[in-house]
């Protein structure tokens, strides 16, 4: 199994505020969809609740401490990141999509990070963990300037565990 964290974070590692994203980057959404489609995605309950409905063509695993948490058909509920990984397909890439607490718990378990670095500092209440370059190697980097659809410059970064 390859465990990949996928996120968009500002220069100050800001992810979101009040259970919502703090920017609108359509190309990043398209990349997220292309990378995660057809795979298992693991997330915390608040991240799941931030979606209007489950994301198409993906198996959702929601981590929550709520014993009787109700989810739509096709979504799975577990109590821990370890349990989420146990029930994921062992021969596939699985994606951890947030939020901040789930990223923090899983970064040490991850093999890969797909990070969109948004070139701004923004006020937030949820943050991506610091990437320790002693443990991670930058494999790919692709810069995108801001334009009429994208309010900020951003760079796609792919890290592999050393």
Automatic annotation (TrEMBL):
Pathway: Cofactor biosynthesis; tetrahydrofolate biosynthesis; 5,6,7,8-tetrahydrofolate from 7,8-dihydrofolate: step 1/1. Keywords: NADP, One-carbon metabolism, Oxidoreductase. It is an enzyme of class 1 (oxidoreductase). It catalyses: (6S)-5,6,7,8-tetrahydrofolate + NADP(+) = 7,8-dihydrofolate + NADPH + H(+). Its EC number is 1.5.1.3. Belongs to the dihydrofolate reductase family. Key enzyme in folate metabolism. Catalyzes an essential reaction for de novo glycine and purine synthesis, and for DNA precursor synthesis. This is Dihydrofolate reductase. It comes from Flavobacterium okayamense.
């Amino acid at each position: 199994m390859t465990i990949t964290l996928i996120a968009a974070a500002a220069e100050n590692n800001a992810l979101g505020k009040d259970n919502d994203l703090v920017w609108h980057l359509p190309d990043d959404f398209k990349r997220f969809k292309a990378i995660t489609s057809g795979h298992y995605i693991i997330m915390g309950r608040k991240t799941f609740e931030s979606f209007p409905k489950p994301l198409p063509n993906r198996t959702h695993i929601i981590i929550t401490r709520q014993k009787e948490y109700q989810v739509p058909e096709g979504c799975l509920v577990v109590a821990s990141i370890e349990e989420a990984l146990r029930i994921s397909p062992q021969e596939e890439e699985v994606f951890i999509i947030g939020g901040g607490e789930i990223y923090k718990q899983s970064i040490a378990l991850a093999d890969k990070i797909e990070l969109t670095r948004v070139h701004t500092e923004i006020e937030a209440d949820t943050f991506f963990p610091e990437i320790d370059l002693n443990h991670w190697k930058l494999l790919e980097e692709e810069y995108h300037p801001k334009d009429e659809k994208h309010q900020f410059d951003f760079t796609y970064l792919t890290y592999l565990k050393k």
